[in-house]
Here is the input.
Amino acid sequence: MSFNIIVSTLRNRENEAISELWYLFREIGDESISARRAVVPGLLLVKTSLNPFEAVHKLEERAKERPWDFRYVLKLTPIQVVVPTSLNEISTEAVKLANKSIALNESFKISINKRATQLKSEEIIGSIASNVNRKVNLTNPDKVILVEVVGPETGISVLKPSDIVSIVKLIGRGF
Here is the structure.
């Protein structure tokens, strides 16, 4: 099973978060999501039939209206492409997405989250950045090339910083 949303939750609360996701996604129109634990604790890989960006923003709106519905889901990150974790595969797909999604006049930065891999962030960044002919802005980019390495699978997205939804920041829940 592939995935198109990465969800962060509390360690050892993955099963509760999956139940919460089933409820939340049913509320926004997807009754057939699949969710599974990732190779690292506190991370879930979700496949929805909805557009992952729209789904994340619908859940963001729901969290604003009904914060009590969110007990275990902490952060939602939409993913556009999933590839096997190899430098060549990651670089090829990230560059393809970036050149399609970042306008010539827009700036970007690359953000890497690595879990359970031997790949080095510098290698990944170097192999992508050298092939994206756009202006780099590390503090306030128009777009972020996000690379989420999760063991043998890597999710890639080109998104605006606001496309990643932190429920914790949104509703101010302290754990």
Q: What stands out?
A: Helices lie at 14-27, 52-65, 87-101, 121-129, 167-171. The two ends are 31 Å apart (CA to CA). Residues 108 and 137 are 6 Å apart (CA to CA). The domain at 5-79+162-171 is CATH 3.30.70 (Alpha-Beta Plaits).
